[in-house]
Specification:
binds (R)-mevalonate; alpha+beta; Alpha-Beta Plaits
């Protein structure tokens, strides 16, 4: 039912304080005092900072940060902070790390820290020669772009290359300029967007065309993070398990319906570290899925093979646009703490660790799926959530959760009934 007395047209909402905004929302939505108290508790994020990070803030939302143990990456033991609301994600990485630890853990590498900015040029009468006339000005383009960010240049970054593509569209041929920029330890969105905006009028002047969009591409395929690891056949439970994992992978490699779920599992791990470090989860996710479709069909982000010794070898390669400076990475105190735990000093190191986590996640998901299924593990954690939803507190949570798992009925109604019995 609609309530015609309510209006979402709240002029000047952005100018109010957090508590005044919350008061307006309380009135609008008829919130109870316990809900207001919940929203008023800003946890470990300072209100002033929250209010500067996004617009119209009324509260914050805490997500658990768990530590993935057992991870050895490039010969170093690391503890990996992961921010996620999903049960089993952290445990999956711990398990995968444990099972390849004695075989050396994860080996990682990176193609570089190059980001791409796109400039869309339309209404060009002679697209082919316009393309060439942009390309022949590479030195001038470099001067214009590098002048936008002298700090980046002083840190060894800046424009590296220019590519120009002719794109056939329903509106005719567009001339798309790609600025290839080394953004070093920054994710680089601001740097490359500024360069694209600065260069746009020059491109118009050189070609007589009209520029519309000037924005980075999240398909950061010149910033690929790679990881690989070997799991001995014995450590993972024998050839049947190994072959089950290979078969699960071949399924994902051949079928986009399965690949979407397979890659979602990978992103469970990846996004959790990206979030914990204050990086842009949507940028990394968009890049990963676009990269997974680069062959012309949507497929697996990982590859799984059997080695000459009969062991299981896994590898992953995907765009990883993450940084250590700028935005929430630098400002959010929990993100800073997570980076400290990781002990990384470059964006390259962080990106490589995240790729290793994605591979670890995929190993555990495929192993579970090819053997016992995921529900057993999921359900024991999920049962605790159900117990809490039923009202269980303290020791009751474990007791009710145990009963639900034993009964094989992880359901709210059963939890409520069992809680009633437990309390006599
Ligand atoms: C669930 O969040 C992730 C999985 O579905 C991944 C997969 O199927 O590979 C278990």
């Amino acid at each position: 039912m609609t309530d015609s007395t309510k209006t979402s047209r709240i002029s000047g909402f952005h100018k109010l304080s957090i508590s005044d905004r919350l008061a307006r929302v309380t009135e609008f939505a008829g919130l109870d005092s316990d809900v207001v108290a919940q929203l008023s508790n800003l946890g470990n994020l300072d209100g002033e900072l929250a209010d500067r990070l996004i617009e119209n803030v009324i509260g914050t939302m805490s997500i658990p940060v768990g530590i993935a143990t057992n991870m050895k990456i490039d010969g170093q033991d690391v503890l990996i902070p992961m921010a996620t609301e999903e049960s089993s994600v952290v445990a999956a990485v711990c398990n995968a790390g444990r099972q390849c630890y004695d075989d050396g853990g994860f080996i990682t590498s990176m193609s570089g820290t190059l980001m791409i900015a796109q400039i869309q040029l339309v209404d060009v009468t002679n697209p082919a020669s316009s393309r060439i006339s942009i390309l022949e000005r590479k030195d001038e383009i470099k001067d214009i772009c590098d002048a936008c960010d002298p700090i980046l240049v002083s840190l060894g970054g800046g424009l590296r290359d220019v590519e120009v593509r002719l794109l056939e569209t329903a509106e005719g041929t567009m001339v798309i300029t790609h600025l290839i920029v080394d953004t070093r330890d920054a994710m680089g969105a601001n740097a490359v967007n500024s360069m694209a905006e600065k260069l746009a009028p020059h491109i118009e002047a050189w070609t007589g065309g009209r520029v519309y969009l000037r924005i980075l591409s999240n398909l950061a395929d010149k910033r690929l993070a790679r990881a690989r690891a070997t799991w001995s056949c014995e450590a993972i439970g024998g050839p049947d398990v190994r072959d089950g994992i290979i078969s699960a992978y071949e399924f994902a490699a051949a079928d986009p319906y399965r690949a979407a779920t397979h890659n979602k599992g990978i992103m469970n791990g990846i996004s959790a570290v990206v979030l914990a470090t204050g990086n842009d989860t949507r940028a990394v996710e968009a890049g990963a899925h676009a990269f997974a479709a680069q062959k012309g069909w949507y497929t697996s982000l990982t590859d799984w093979e059997v080695t000459a010794e009969g062991d299981l070898s896994g590898s992953i390669e995907l765009p990883m646009a993450v940084g250590l400076i700028g935005g929430a990475t630098k400002l959010h105190p929990t993100a800073r703490a997570c980076l400290k735990i990781l002990g990384v000093s470059t964006a390259d190191q962080l990106a490589r660790m995240i790729a290793a986590v994605g591979l670890a996640q995929n190993f555990s998901a495929l192993k579970a799926l090819a053997t016992t299924g995921v529900q057993k593990g999921h359900m024991s954690l999920h049962s605790q959530n159900i117990a809490m939803m039923a009202g269980a507190v303290g020791d009751e949570i474990d007791q009710i959760s145990k009963i639900l798992v034993e009964k094989g009925q992880v359901r709210l109604d059963v939890a409520q009934e069992e809680l009633k019995k437990l309390r006599g």
